[in-house]
Each structure stands twice: as structure tokens, then as C-alpha cells.
Specification:
Layout: E1 3-6, H1 12-23, E2 27-32, H2 39-42, E3 49-53, H3 59-73, E4 78-81, H4 96-106, H5 108-121, E5 128-132, H6 145-165, E6 171-177, H7 184-190, H8 200-215, H9 220-231, E7 238-241, H10 245-254, H11 257-267
Parallel strand pairs: 1-2, 1-4, 2-3, 4-5, 5-6, 6-7
Helix pairs in contact: 1-9, 3-5, 4-6
């Protein structure tokens, strides 16, 4: 039985992925920041899931959990870095603490967990690292600069790591979900600082973000893609999933920038 370690498993994509992989015969070590917010996860059968508390921003917790996993299971076949959140807001209204917190979780949390768990992944016959990024790691959406920046950085990290580990037959892949009903966008909008006299286009951007969240697909669609990566003998580097992800990537790649700007501005006219 393959052993999976996943972060941010308490809700959204993390919870959906845990449930899907368990159904497909994997044993999942699911990490969450707090047991109190993970009732649905804790209700899963103990024979197939081991739920552990771990904050990806805490060096000591990450090292302690890695020691626990090594003692109890000896290895990790697949590491899924999923923990993250979306900090919404416009640059002029955000504090430097907002930026630091965003990167500490979305980027440095992934670095911390991967660095600590890599010796356990090397003990697997076919190690895998799957980083859950976002289409925001390819397209810089206005009003989400901290989140977008952190995901762009995650993409760069993943590319470098893919080249570094490929000769060891440890494949690194990134998943770029579009908008899904995970709560991450809702939290992102809720974290927008109070703005004095916001401009019409800023109000419109927040409204568009809410609409996008409401139209989002179920996170189980992302879970299925992650499962396919787990099953693949030679997984690709990048997987885009969800309505609009591939068209958006196509438009940014092939449309002239002036036309892309016009389309974005059209969407945000107040």
C-alpha cells in the first residue's frame, strides 16, 4: 500500500484528495493545523487515514511530525503540498505583514515540508512530490497580488526541484486549479483590508471574485487529477484543471499583451 503525506487536508482540495485516495487504496497521513476544524476528516476510518496536527510554518512541528512518520511508517511514497490560503486586496492597502504571512504559508511552508520529508521520499521505490499551485501561478489576477506572487514563486520552485530530483526518479509535478468551491477565495475576499473610498474598478474586482467562487467546480475534480499523477509511472510536470484554466493559459501565451489587458479591463469596468 502506497503511503501519502498531504498538508492542508482539513477542507477543500486537501479533504477531497484524502477521501479520493483512500477510496483508491492509498494510506494517507493527513496533516491539519487544528483537529477542531477537521471533524469530517477525523470521521474517516483509522485503518486508512492517520490525521496529524502540523502547521507548515512551524519548524519544530514539521520536524516532529517527520520523525513520527519515519518511526511509524518508515517512508513516504507521495508528498502532496496543498496547504495554503489566499490573501486578497490591493497592494497599497496591504501591510508588509500581510505579504510575509502569505509567503510563509504558500511558499516557505512548501519548502520547509519538502526539505524535511525528502529523506523519507527517497526511501520509496517511486517517490512523487505534488505541489498544489493555482492558475494564479500563471496569470497575475488584479486584486490578488500576494496570492498570485506566492504561486508564481511556487511554480519556479517546482521547476527547479523537478530538474534537481528527476535523475533520482523522484518526479515533481504542479497542479494548477482554476476556481473551485474550496473556501480559499471566500477567505481571500474576507481578508481584504477595509478600503477608504475604493475606486469603482476595485469594487468590481471583488464582485467578480465572488462570482467566480460561486461558479466554481467541486474540488473532487482536482482530487481525480492528483490521483492520476500518483498512478502515472512518469507524470508530467504541469496539470491544469477546471473550467477556464486551459483557455486562460492559451490566451496569455498567444494573445498580444494589449489585447489581454483590454479583456481584463473590460471585465472590471464599474
Amino acid at each position: 500500500m502506497k503511503i501519502v503525506f498531504i498538508t492542508g487536508a482539513g477542507s477543500g482540495i486537501g479533504l477531497a484528495t484524502t477521501k479520493w485516495l483512500v477510496e483508491k487504496g492509498y494510506f494517507v497521513i493527513a496533516s491539519v493545523r487544528s483537529f477542531k476544524r477537521s471533524k469530517e476528516l477525523l470521521a474517516l476510518k483509522k485503518e486508512t487515514v492517520d490525521v496529524v496536527e502540523m502547521d507548515v510554518t512551524d519548524d519544530i512541528q514539521v520536524k516532529d511530525v517527520a520523525k513520527y512518520v519515519e518511526t511509524c511508517y518508515g517512508k513516504v511514497d507521495i508528498l502532496i503540498n496543498n496547504a495554503g490560503y489566499s490573501q486578497g486586496g490591493f497592494l497599497e492597502y496591504l501591510s508588509m505583514d500581510d505579504w510575509h504571512r502569505q509567503f510563509e504559508t504558500n511558499l516557505f511552508g512548501t519548502v520547509r515540508v519538502t526539505k524535511t520529508f525528502l529523506p523519507l521520499i527517497r526511501k520509496s521505490e517511486r517517490g512523487r512530490i505534488i505541489n498544489v499551485s493555482s492558475i494564479s501561478g500563471f496569470f497575475g489576477f488584479p486584486g490578488l497580488a500576494p496570492y498570485t506572487s506566492s504561486k508564481f514563486a511556487l511554480e519556479g520552485l517546482s521547476e527547479s526541484l523537478r530538474f534537481e530530483l528527476k535523475k533520482e526518479e523522484i518526479f515533481v509535478s504542479v497542479v494548477q486549479p482554476a476556481s473551485f468551491r474550496t473556501g480559499i477565495w471566500k477567505k481571500g475576499i474576507e481578508t481584504v483590508p477595509q478600503m477608504k473610498n475604493p475606486l469603482p474598478y476595485q469594487k468590481q474586482l471583488l464582485q467578480e471574485g465572488t462570482k467566480s467562487m460561486e461558479r466554481g467546480q467541486h474540488p473532487s475534480e482536482v482530487a481525480k487529477v492528483i490521483w492520476k499523477i500518483c498512478e502515472s509511472p512518469r507524470p508530467h510536470f504541469r496539470y491544469r484543471v477546471g473550467k477556464g484554466a486551459k483557455p486562460l493559459a492559451f490566451f496569455k501565451t498567444y494573445l498580444p499583451w494589449w489585447l489581454l489587458e483590454r479583456i481584463v479591463h473590460k471585465k472590471t469596468e464599474g
